[in-house]
Write a structure and sequence with these properties.
The protein has 399 residues and is an alpha/beta fold. It is built from twelve helices and 17 strands.
Length: 399
């Protein structure tokens, strides 16, 4: 079938008509358990009643006015985000890449505002993914995303992920700070090593630098805390959010301390659609659920159960699954077979997952996933893995 869609996606031959909770349904009624969640976006599952009601109520009143006027929903959502984080100020965007762009601009503007415009470089980390704009692919530094888009935007120095000595050695007279994902998602579901974020914070404080966190994928409850860095007990200066913050509606945010944002005066940044009334209604509805007593505790219990189930699957399919890694409900299966083979096999068993770097399959269920759905997913992974076991490696290790 001919298509007029730009061929930038290697799409699977699947289309869905509706969703409910953790399930998606095709037009002919086939059910798939969704452990992709729109790549960590549908944090509260599909068609969550509270989100549907909030969007419908707002849609009947007002869609868009632009940021030349006050938007009450922005004030409310920003206040709630700040009350539950390190931040004093928020800028709303439509996507994660835009939130990271805002963070990069803010870090540069901070030093320009202080009379140090030469301090514009950010130290970034190998394996990172920060978005698809020219600035964010340069920040990530991965050649597969840079190919064909030369010249690469200057201003980024890349060091190995988790190597504090290399990070410190990269600090120079032009350095503005560090930019890092507490858990690399696209890069292979790799959490920062224990103590690494604290070490970066100490280095930033020692040299008067900014610590910029990209929590677009790992934030908003995904790791069992509202924000991933809270597990490490660190305080960033700037943080980019998106994906789960809108529960499926396009929404991102750049959070910052008052000091870090001190250079961002009127006219220094903007967005036509960012923070529109529809997005704010949904974002506030998402927070209603995530801030409920017991919500994050339930995420942690679900994460523990899923990890236990996956460990059992790994024990019975060591020729297919090498390692289970990640934090919370951002987990990865490091594969011994091509990860694309496992993703396709899982489709055949009615489970949706997504690949990542380092030959990993990401598991990103909605944060509302039930124990029964976790067991169902584990059974499907075991069944799919059984079809991919290399010759001579069937059965549990040692059997």
């Amino acid at each position: 079938m001919a298509t007029h869609i730009l061929p930038t996606y290697a799409r699977f031959d699947l289309a869905f008509e509706r969703g409910e909770g953790c399930a998606l349904f095709t037009a002919d009624g086939r059910r798939y358990l969704d452990f992709t969640s729109g790549i960590a976006v549908n944090a509260l599952g599909h068609a969550h009643p509270h989100l549907v009601a909030a969007l419908g109520e707002q849609a009947a009143k007002l869609w868009h006015v632009s940021n030349i006027y006050n938007i009450p929903g922005q004030e409310r959502l920003a206040a709630r985000l700040c009350a539950n984080s390190f931040a004093d100020l928020v800028f709303f965007t439509n996507s994660g890449a835009e939130a990271v762009e805002c963070a990069i601009k803010m870090a540069r503007k901070f030093f320009a505002h202080r009379g140090q415009p030469q301090r514009h470089r950010l130290i970034a980390f190998e394996g990172a993914f920060h978005g698809r704009t020219l600035a964010t692919i340069a920040a990530a530094g991965q050649q597969k995303y840079l190919d064909g888009f030369a010249p690469s935007m200057p201003g980024f120095d890349h060091v190995p992920f988790g190597d504090i000595d290399a990070a410190r050695a990269a600090i120079g007279e032009e350095t503005a700070g560090f930019i890092i994902e507490p858990v690399q998602g696209e890069g292979g579901v790799r959490p920062a090593p224990a103590g690494f974020l604290k070490a970066l914070r100490a280095a930033a404080d020692e040299h008067g630098l900014l610590l910029v966190l990209d929590e677009v994928q790992c934030g908003m409850g995904r790791t069992g805390q509202l924000f991933a860095h809270q597990r490490d007990g660190v305080t960033p200066d700037i943080m980019a959010l998106a994906k789960g913050i809108g529960g499926g509606f396009p929404l991102g945010a750049c959070l910052a301390s008052a000091e870090a944002a001190s250079g961002m005066a009127a006219g220094s940044h903007g967005s036509t659609y960012g923070g529109n009334p529809l997005a704010m209604a949904v974002g506030n509805a998402v927070l209603d659920i995530m801030l409920e007593k017991g919500f994050l505790e339930r995420v942690n219990r679900a994460a523990t159960l899923l990890r236990q189930k996956l460990a059992a699957v790994q024990d019975h399919a060591p020729g297919v699954i090498e390692e289970v890694r990640g934090e919370g409900l951002l987990l990865g299966l490091k594969c011994r077979v091509p990860n694309t083979d496992l993703v396709k096999a899982l489709h055949g068993h009615g489970l949706l997952t997504v690949g990542a770097g380092d030959n990993v399959v990401r598991l990103l269920p909605p944060l509302i996933v039930s124990d029964e759905e976790i067991s169902e997913a584990a059974d499907k992974i075991a069944a799919a893995a059984a079809t991919l076991v290399p010759a001579g490696m069937s059965g549990a290790s040692g059997s």
